[in-house]
C-alpha cells in the first residue's frame, strides 16, 4: 500500500488525475471503477479539463460506479447517476452507453444486482477502482457489520451514513434508507485501487482502516489485503499516521 499525504489540494488532485490519465494513455479501453462523494470531485474536474484540452480521451473506456440509492426518482439531483452525469460524464467524450451505475429503481433489485455482477464479470476486472472512505469505515455502501457481502447487493444504510449524507437533502427523513452497492469481493477484484480521503474528521478512521486490524467492522481495512492500493490523503485526513 502506497500512502501519500498532500499539503496542497492541487497536488492531491493532480496526482489522482495523473494516475487515471496515464492508465488511459497505456490502455484506452480501460474499465474504470468510479465513486461519487466529495473526495473525487476535484479529480473529475481536472479530468474534464484535460479531456477538453485533448490531453486524454475516454472514448474507448467504460465505467462502473460503486453504488446508487434505492428509490430516488430518476433524474433526482442527489441520485448517483445524476451526480456522475453532472460532475463527469456529460463533459467528457465517454460514450454514455459505456457508463454503468446500479439501477436503484429496478422493479426487481435482486435481479439488478445479479445483472450488475454479470456485467462486471464479463467486462472486468476493473483496471482502476476509485474509492472514498465513510466515517464508519465503509467503502461503497459496505457498512461495518459482523460479516460482509462479496457481490453487488441491497444494503440498509446506517444512521451514521444517512446523517453524513443528510447535508445534501432537505432533511434526514429525505435520505434514502437503502442502497445498491458493489460488494467488497467485487471491489477487491480491481487491478488497482485508488483510495481518496480528505478532511480532519476522517483522520481516525483512516488510521483504523490502514493500520488497524483487518475486520468486517471496518470494511476499508480489507484494502490492506489488496496488492496494489494507492492512498491519497490531505493533511487533515493523514494527521494521525506517522
Ligand atoms: C460513494 C461511496 C461512498 C463515499 C464515502 C466517502 O460512491 O460509495 O463510500 O465514497 O462515503 O464520501 P466523501 O468522499 O464525501 O467523503
TrEMBL record:
InterPro entries per UniProt: Glc/Gal-6P_isomerase, Glucosamine6P_isomerase, Glucosamine6P_isomerase_CS, NagB/RpiA_transferase-like
List of catalytic residues: 67 (proton acceptor), 136 (for ring-opening step), 138 (proton acceptor), 143 (for ring-opening step)
Single GO molecular function: glucosamine-6-phosphate deaminase activity
One of the Pfam families matching this protein, by short name: Glucosamine_iso
Known EC number: 3.5.99.6
Family designation: Belongs to the glucosamine/galactosamine-6-phosphate isomerase family. NagB subfamily.
Name the UniProt record assigns to this protein: Glucosamine-6-phosphate deaminase
Amino acid at each position: 500500500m502506497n500512502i501519500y499525504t498532500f499539503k496542497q489540494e492541487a497536488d492531491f488532485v493532480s496526482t489522482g488525475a495523473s494516475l487515471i490519465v496515464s492508465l488511459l494513455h497505456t490502455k484506452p479501453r480501460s474499465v474504470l471503477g468510479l465513486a461519487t462523494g466529495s473526495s473525487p470531485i476535484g479529480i473529475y474536474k481536472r479530468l474534464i479539463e484535460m479531456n477538453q484540452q485533448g490531453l486524454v480521451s475516454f472514448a474507448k473506456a467504460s465505467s462502473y460506479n460503486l453504488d446508487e440509492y434505492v428509490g430516488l426518482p430518476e433524474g433526482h439531483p442527489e441520485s448517483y447517476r445524476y451526480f456522475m452525469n453532472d460532475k463527469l460524464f456529460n463533459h467528457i467524450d465517454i460514450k454514455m452507453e459505456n457508463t454503468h451505475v446500479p439501477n436503484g429503481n429496478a422493479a426487481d433489485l435482486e435481479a439488478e444486482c445479479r445483472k450488475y455482477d454479470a456485467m462486471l464479470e464479463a467486462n472486468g476486472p476493473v483496471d482502476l477502482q476509485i474509492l472514498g472512505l465513510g466515517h464508519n469505515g465503509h467503502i461503497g455502501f459496505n457498512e461495518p457489520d459482523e460479516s460482509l457481502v462479496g457481490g453487488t447487493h441491497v444494503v440498509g444504510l446506517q444512521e451514521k451514513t444517512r446523517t453524513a449524507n443528510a447535508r445534501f437533502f432537505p432533511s434526514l427523513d429525505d435520505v434514502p434508507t437503502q442502497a445498491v452497492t458493489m460488494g467488497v469481493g467485487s471491489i477487491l477484484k480491481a487491478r488497482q485501487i485508488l483510495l481518496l480521503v480528505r478532511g480532519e474528521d476522517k483522520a481516525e478512521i483512516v488510521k483504523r482502516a490502514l493500520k488497524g486490524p483487518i475486520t468486517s467492522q471496518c470494511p476499508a481495512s480489507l484494502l490492506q489485503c489488496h496488492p496494489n492500493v494507492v492512498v491519497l490523503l490531505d493533511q487533515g485526513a493523514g494527521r494521525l499516521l506517522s
